[in-house]
Amino acid sequence: xxxxxxxxxxxxxxxxxxxxxxxxxxxxxxxxxxxxxxxxxxxxxxxxxxxxxxxxxxxxxxxxxxxxxxxxxxxxxxxxxxxxxxxxxxxxxxxxxxxxxxxxxxxxxxxxxxxxxxxxxxxxxxxxxxxxxxxxxxxxxxxxxxxxxxxxxxxxxxxxxxxxxxxxxxxxxxxxxxxxxxxxxxxxxxxxxxxxxxxxxxxxxxxxxxxxxxxxxxxxxxxxxxxxxxxxxxxxxxxxxxxxxxxxxxxxxxxxxxxxxxxxxxxxxxxxxxxxxxxxxxxxxxxxxxxxxxxxxxxxxxxxxxxxxxxxxxxxxxxxxxxxxxxxxxxxxxxxxxxxxxxxxxxxxxxxxxxxxxxxxxxx
Length: 364
Ligand SMILES: Nc1ncnc2c1ncn2[C@@H]1O[C@H](COP(=O)(O)OP(=O)(O)OP(=O)(O)O)[C@@H](O)[C@H]1O
Fold this sequence. Notes:
Layout: E1 6-15, E2 22-30, E3 34-38, H1 45-53, E4 62-65, E5 68-71, E6 84-87, H2 99-109, H3 119-126, H4 141-154, E7 159-163, H5 171-187, E8 192-195, H6 199-205, E9 208-213, E10 216-222, H7 223-227, E11 241-252, E12 257-262, E13 265-270, E14 279-285, E15 289-292, E16 303-315, E17 318-328, E18 331-338, H8 339-344, E19 352-357, E20 361-362
Parallel strand pairs: 3-8, 3-9, 6-7, 7-8
Antiparallel strand pairs: 1-2, 1-4, 4-5, 9-10, 11-12, 11-14, 12-13, 14-20, 15-19, 16-17, 16-19, 17-18
Helix pairs in contact: 2-4, 3-4, 4-5
The structure holds adenosine-5'-triphosphate.
Residues 16, 18-19, 21, 39, 41-47 line the site of adenosine-5'-triphosphate (ATP).
Domain Mop: 298-364
Keywords: ATP-binding, Cell inner membrane, Cell membrane, Membrane, Molybdenum, Nucleotide-binding, Translocase, Transport
InterPro entries: AAA+_ATPase (IPR003593), ABC_transporter-like_ATP-bd (IPR003439), ABC_transporter-like_CS (IPR017871), Mo/tungstate-bd_C_term_dom (IPR008995), ModC_ABC_ATP-bd (IPR011868), Molybdenum_import_ModC (IPR050334), Mop_domain (IPR004606), P-loop_NTPase (IPR027417)
């Protein structure tokens, strides 16, 4: 990341009107990929997005994208002049206009000098060709949100802000929309800041993460790195997980399985559409990892990795559980086991053990 090629967000002690809340952040956000903004309710995620969008007036902040300044103590580009697309929980479409007319409205606002993504590409990615003639009231919640995302892209923004875009949808609609979001996140060149309470969504979409608490940044870094750290917001999360990236090196049609190779190790996954040579990411949840001192050859679990215990921490909220950071080569894996098991097995840092992985989820 070169210094000029980033979104710089420096907000000094911004006190929200009629509130005790203050925001104080200093962030360098990569100008490619998805940065997830995570944190408890009331930690300031929406306020931070509103500051970036120019919806909160704050003379003491400094905002720039690739050396284009939107806010300094001398400059304050109004919200409507900032090259930003915004997607909220609710689609907020004009009810008296069809989906196509809603999109035309965005195209009129588009920054013609930007050529990030074409109209046909947006329609294809969001798969909305057939619903364009409909009015918002004739669309499902998921369809409306796909139009809202298309609209945000068609203004040709230099930055896309997404504030819990799936939160208002039920679980089945979330599942329906997530692949569209993945397509946008991975094929558009626009940096995206994505607010969510769902670790599941963040793991699927984000390359980088920022964690806010009480208006301050408490963690930031690459997704893969942060997820594998102990003592963080993520390692304390009930769905604490790591993400592993590897290459498919072997497949068995007879057993319907693929072998994913990473860091001199192999993980066996259920075979899907992937081919030998494909790069895939998979998620391993800490609760799906158990430990043994010797290889359990008589176990039905296929994935057994030789690992070294790098660190272990008692769960501060539940002292009967311990989170262990294991290293498979240099790749971290988290295991959540009972404190009694760590005592019975006399587990300690530096020890070599076998991690038995009960299940893995392929991400893409
Ligand atoms: N209009 C307002 N007036 C007064 N206080 C506000 C206002 N908007 C937000 N706040 C307060 O500012 C703080 C930060 O709110 P913000 O909405 O940015 O948090 P958040 O992390 O986005 O929360 P959530 O995850 O619940 O959406 C909270 O304490 C909230 O109560």
